[in-house]
């Protein structure tokens, strides 16, 4: 029985964990708290709209991205990771777990976002594209694990082999696990699993989730439109971003980002008055980038 197997594996990993109870008591040293919550490891977004409204992204943050199909969720991840990767501490790397579209397509989009090059530009001089990609990576690893229906245990097995400071799950509801729960509770448990990954690996974790049909063609999505969820999934995240897109003619290059939830303290250049705000941005599908409208 798959549910029994999941329980056995969970018990095994719990018993195998090597920790001391004192590891879980939090210091009241204000300098240490400020370093952990506000200053340490903060990374700036590639969109100025997010820098002024969310502030910096930090280790242990869990960020949920809700959207309809073909709106650019994967590209949002690859575009922001292209900005975050060079800011990671030495020895820290990035990984995207993909179960959505073909792995080669996602890998290509990772390169496009990093280099901000169209397909035609990349093909015009492949040797130069390779050189620029290697230059972008430097000493960092930017991995893609692509497997249809990968399980939570598959991901954990991979994460134990590398030192990842950036982790993305694309898409959350297609990750296999927690099938003994009903659909709503299963999604909450998957979000809780992502939350635990952020803490366990001291990483910034992103998860893409689908919005339901009520969000089709809307620019400003709200958190109640996450597919198959009530409040449990939303409650696990530090930040919930919803990306909307109009179906009107001539609007293909425009996206709207609604910051539905933001539990982050004031960091970086955050303006607290913009903590929950909606931002129109431009979308360059040819180069895999979101473009700020803040000059």
What does this molecule look like?
With 295 residues, the chain is α/β, with parallel strands linked by helices. It has helices spanning 2-16, 30-39, 48-53, 73-84, 103-115, 119-124, 126-137, 152-159, 183-200, 232-236, and strands spanning 62-67, 93-98, 142-146, 164-170, 204-210, 239-244, 254-262, 278-284, 289-291. It has a 9-stranded mixed β-sheet. Helix 4 packs across helix 5. 39% of the residues are buried.
Present the secondary structure layout.
Blueprint: H1 2-16, H2 30-39, H3 48-53, E1 62-67, H4 73-84, E2 93-98, H5 103-115, H6 119-124, H7 126-137, E3 142-146, H8 152-159, E4 164-170, H9 183-200, E5 204-210, H10 232-236, E6 239-244, E7 254-262, E8 278-284, E9 289-291
Helix pairs in contact: 4-5
């Amino acid at each position: 029985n798959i549910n029994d197997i999941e329980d056995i594996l969970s018990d095994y990993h719990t018993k195998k964990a090597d920790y001391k109870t004192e590891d879980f008591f939090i210091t009241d040293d204000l300098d240490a708290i400020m370093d952990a919550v506000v200053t340490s490891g903060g990374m700036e977004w590639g969109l100025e709209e997010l820098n002024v409204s969310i502030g910096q992204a930090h280790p242990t943050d869990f960020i949920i991205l809700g959207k309809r199909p073909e709106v650019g969720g994967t590209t949002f991840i690859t575009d922001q990771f292209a900005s975050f990767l060079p800011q990671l501490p030495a020895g820290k790397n990035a990984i995207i777990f993909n179960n959505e579209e073909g792995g080669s397509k996602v890998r290509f989009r990772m390169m496009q976002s990093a280099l901000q090059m169209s397909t035609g530009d990349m093909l015009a001089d492949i040797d130069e594209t390779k050189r620029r990609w290697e230059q972008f990576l430097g000493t960092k690893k930017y991995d893609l694990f692509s497997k249809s229906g990968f399980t939570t245990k598959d991901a954990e097995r991979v994460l134990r082999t590398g030192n990842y400071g950036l982790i993305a799950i694309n898409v959350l509801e297609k990750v296999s696990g927690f099938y003994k729960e009903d659909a709503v509770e299963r999604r909450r448990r998957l979000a809780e699993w992502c939350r635990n990954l952020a803490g366990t690996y001291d990483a910034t974790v992103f998860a893409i989730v689908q919005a339901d049909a009520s969000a089709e063609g809307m620019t400003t999505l709200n958190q109640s439109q996450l597919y198959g969820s009530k409040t449990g999934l939303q409650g696990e995240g530090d930040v919930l971003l919803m990306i909307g897109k109009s179906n009107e003619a001539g609007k293909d290059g425009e996206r709207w980002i609604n910051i539905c939830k933001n539990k982050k303290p004031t960091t970086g250049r955050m303006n607290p008055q913009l903590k929950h705000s909606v931002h129109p941005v431009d979308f360059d599908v040819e180069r895999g980038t979101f473009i700020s409208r803040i000059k």
